[in-house]
Amino acid sequence: MRTIPLTVGHWSVGPRVLLGMVVWGAVFASGWGLSTVRADEPKVENTWQVIQMQGQRVGYVHATTKTEERDGKKVIVSDVFTRMSIRRFGVALTTDVIQKTEETEEGQLLSVYSLQDNPPFSRTEAKGRVSGQKIILETTNAGKTHTREIPLPADLKSPSWQDRSLRESPLKVGESRTFQTFEATLGKVVDIHLTRVEAGETTLLSGEKAKLDRIELKQSVLPGITSLIYSDSSGSMKKMEMPLLKMEAFDCTRDEALREIAEANIDLGIDTLVKVGVIPNPRETTRVTFRLEAREYDPFQVYPASTYQGLVKRDDGSFELTVRAEALPEAPREPAPEARYLASSRYMDLNDELIQQLSQRFANEETDVRRIAWAGEKFVHEHLNLKDYKTNLATASEVARSRSGDCTEHGVLLAALLRARKIPARVAAGLVYAASLKAYGGHMWTEAYLDGRWVPLDATLANGHGDAIHIKTSDAALEDESSLPVEQMLPLIHLLGRTTLTVEVVEHRKSE
Known about the structure:
The longest helix is centred in the N-terminal third of the chain and has 17 residues. The strands form four sheets. A 14-stranded antiparallel β-sheet has the order 8-7-6-5-4-3-2-1-14-13-12-11-10-9. Strands 15, 21, 22, 23 and 24 form a five-stranded antiparallel β-sheet that branches. The chain is built from eight helices and 25 strands. It starts with 12 loop residues before the first helix and ends with a strand. The protein is mainly β. The chain folds into two domains: 246 residues, no CATH class; 235 residues, C8orf32 fold.
């Protein structure tokens, strides 16, 4: 539930991904505000919640639910609007998410709608209708619509069914309930696991302390992350806690929810950094070895092994993470890439006229794929002449025209241009070292399949060669069949506040 020049200029995917996922998490979890309406009540109910991070207001949720009569059957219609306003490296960023679901009294999903809006670009609209054991989902980006059919499990429920089920059939302490729902923003089926735990004391929005019933909420899309939902004796939900950046949502009045958000100290660009100290001459590094200490997650599930990156567990429980600028000569060739790494998609819109034109503006007489790739890196770096953080994730054609963005826009455009030149390419996400901050922060770059290996390219920095300051956590083809790109970057979520990196070895290129 949706993020840098190395002087706080482009590397922003960590905060951006966190924002996207926090907004998604708020929308998804905000179903608890819908529980005040029973299936047999025709009236429209309104609920409001305030969203806080680290004790500071950053947004609100407004949810409505009504029951309609259609062809002699009752249909429950739920609408949820979420607005989040945060700062990212000093730049204000506001994201709106609208979600609508229709369901039967039994919780069977009938239709979904989702709109995630981050002006001036990154407007993603998804709408789907259930037909038998599948949902036909239409997703629109940059004015282009893509349709796909997604199979559904037989007992799939609507997201808001969770709360009615808890009111009508409450869990006892120690009991659990598991079901599956469909999340339109991600375009996939999500597993939900609820467990009633002992009541506990918590602080409400008013500052009062109260002992409330508690439900643990786990979602398959956020493995290892457990949220807590608090409710009173009547089953009315009062608060939700999500451990990422101490996110909380509180039941409140309309006036409280809409109260102007004060200038906050929280900055997702700064607050999600992993401090490591000085790495001298970082762009010329050939190998960096870290001592990695992970809290509450398995590093082997987060840092993929490759010809450039390796992870070993040590006897003391810590891990040794090694990153290289170039693959070792003895490293085996990687399997030939699948066709999806050359395909056009809603984000990699290769058939766009400008994308085709730009792909021929660098190394157009060159036949060596490595030279083409490195020339493309430099070209994209120069083409994007406005470096900003205001866009969540734009399509390649949008980036080509706006000539603006941060690391995600650099990564997407370079991958698209390389594919247009028949070079397999994908985007990668992880961490990069920012010398000005003496820290690692979230970042996105490009990987191209060159001479039998996936080779990192970074149009944001445009080194013209590899380095050892990129720590990879995931990659994505961004094909139409995949969910929203933010999901591909979820491993970054585990790093936030739960990772310590200590630099142990640094090697540099030898001067010629």
